[in-house]
């Protein structure tokens, strides 16, 4: 009896299949390597295939149940193959051939052909075309920025709207209601839930309000700020650009005014004066409010508080743009923001003659929208989508675009 047969391991009977449909039973000891098993399978299904040594490496055995690719250097036992298991003999998929240099060049050429021409190529291609003597400087100057012009238009339209609304006998009551609406929708109103959470932790209410405003109503960030500045001697100082006592007094006056009814004996002149005061209060509520964090950050760079507030106002509270404005030529100036459009200009006359604009100017909501967009340009989209003010804004935009092309 041969020694290898005495000490041979357990013999397994394995079902082997190929992609072509061939199937047979292969008997191998459990200590047989996968590579040897693969050679036996190739001898069975592809006679003479082992003459090419690459044939074995170009095939693989897969355990059908687990879908696992068997490793050539491991034994059948190590791969945990059991008696009567099914194995698949599959030829490996050949890797895609590398592109030829000619194909690479053709692809690069195709990409270059699809690439848009640069400025030099355009000038070269149009060198022989007759010029039309267009003054490009003047043409570029006439293509004014709509947002810049819109501000001037709004300044002038607000004056017209106030005069028209003052003629309405119900104007005082209408604007008292509008004033109350603004009180309800105050942007810098403190989140009561967030404030209560901080005060329950033991922080003073005034200090908690300041922390919430500095941290955009985030309780977590406000708490971190309060802990960090607990020993700061200026922790209770009012925020730059804000005077809480005046705001509180103004809020009290507004609420008192809202509850008081109009006097039956008030003359037309008194009503007009009352309406003027309401306009002033609405304008004060819509006054620009600088981002406190941006104010503090820019003041830490050495800029004065007033010029920082001016910079943020000119640049819509964008800190980086405000910093560039402060370091640059400071154009436009804050005074330029309050200038209206020439009331005798064809543009303004065309806007006033539009029936949709005329009707909109008699609506108090339109005046409120103009005031809001004047101090908060980022809210323009909101008013463009409003069913009452949207049509007015659309007509202004269309008239501007039409006259700007002529």
TrEMBL record:
Region ranges (Disordered): 98-117, 232-272
Keywords, ordered alphabetically: Cytoplasm, Repeat, Ubl conjugation pathway
Entry keyword Cytoplasm: yes
Pfam families on file: UBA_7 (PF22562), UBL_UBAC1 (PF23326)
Low complexity: compositionally biased ranges: 243-266
Comp. bias regions, Basic and acidic residues: 106-117
Pathway recorded for this protein: Protein modification; protein ubiquitination
Domain of life, source organism: Eukaryota
UniProt record, GO biological process: protein ubiquitination
The keyword Repeat is annotated on this UniProt entry: yes
GO CC term, one of those recorded: cytoplasm
Main subcellular location of this protein, as a coarse class: cytoplasm
Compartments in which it is found: Cytoplasm
SUPFAM superfamilies documented for this protein: UBA-like, Ubiquitin-like
PROSITE patterns: UBA
CDD domains cross-referenced by the UniProt entry: UBA1_KPC2, UBA2_KPC2, Ubl_KPC2
InterPro entries assigned to the protein according to its UniProt record, in alphabetical order: STI1_HS-bd, UBA, UBA-like_sf, UBA1_UBAC1, UBA2_UBAC1, UBAC1, Ubiquitin-like_domsf, UBL_UBAC1
Residues in UBA domain copies: 183-229, 289-329
Designated name of the protein: Ubiquitin-associated domain-containing protein 1
């Amino acid at each position: 009896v041969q020694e290898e047969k005495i000490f041979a391991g357990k013999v397994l009977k394995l079902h082997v299949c190929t992609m072509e449909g061939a199937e047979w039973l292969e008997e191998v000891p459990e200590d047989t390597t996968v590579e040897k098993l693969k050679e036996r399978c190739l001898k069975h299904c592809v006679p003479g295939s082992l003459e090419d040594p690459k044939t074995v490496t170009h095939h693989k055995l897969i355990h059908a149940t687990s879908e696992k690719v068997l490793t050539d250097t491991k034994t059948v036992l190590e791969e945990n193959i059991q008696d009567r298991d099914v194995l698949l003999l599959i030829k490996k998929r050949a890797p895609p051939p590398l592109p030829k240099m000619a194909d690479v060049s053709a692809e690069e050429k195709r990409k270059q052909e699809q690439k848009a021409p640069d400025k030099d190529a355009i000038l070269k291609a149009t060198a022989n075309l007759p010029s039309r003597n267009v003054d490009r400087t003047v043409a570029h100057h006439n293509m004014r920025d709509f947002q810049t012009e819109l501000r001037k238009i709004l300044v002038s339209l607000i004056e017209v709207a106030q005069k028209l609304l003052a003629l309405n006998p119900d104007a005082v009551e209408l604007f008292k209601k509008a004033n109350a609406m603004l009180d309800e929708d105050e942007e810098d109103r403190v989140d009561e839930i967030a404030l209560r959470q901080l005060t329950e932790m033991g922080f003073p209410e005034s200090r908690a309000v300041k922390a919430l405003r500095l941290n955009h109503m985030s309780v977590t960030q406000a708490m971190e700020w309060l802990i960090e500045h607990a020993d700061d001697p200026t922790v209770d100082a009012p925020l730059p650009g804000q005077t809480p006592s005046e705001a509180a007094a103004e809020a009290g006056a507004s609420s008192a005014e809202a509850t008081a009814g109009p006097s039956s004996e008030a003359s037309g002149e008194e009503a007009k004066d009352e309406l003027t005061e309401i306009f002033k209060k609405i304008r004060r509520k819509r006054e620009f409010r600088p981002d406190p964090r941006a104010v503090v950050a820019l003041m830490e760079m050495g800029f004065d508080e007033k010029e920082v507030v001016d910079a943020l106002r000119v640049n819509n509270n964008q800190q980086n743009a405000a910093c560039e404005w402060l370091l640059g030529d400071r154009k436009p100036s804050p005074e330029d923001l309050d200038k209206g459009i020439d009331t005798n200009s064809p543009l303004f006359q065309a806007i006033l003659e539009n029936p949709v604009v005329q009707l909109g100017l008699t609506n108090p909501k339109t005046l409120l929208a103009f005031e809001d967009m004047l101090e908060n340009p980022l809210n323009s989209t909101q008013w463009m989508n409003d069913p009452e003010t949207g049509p007015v804004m659309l007509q202004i935009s269309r008239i501007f675009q039409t006259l700007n092309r002529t």
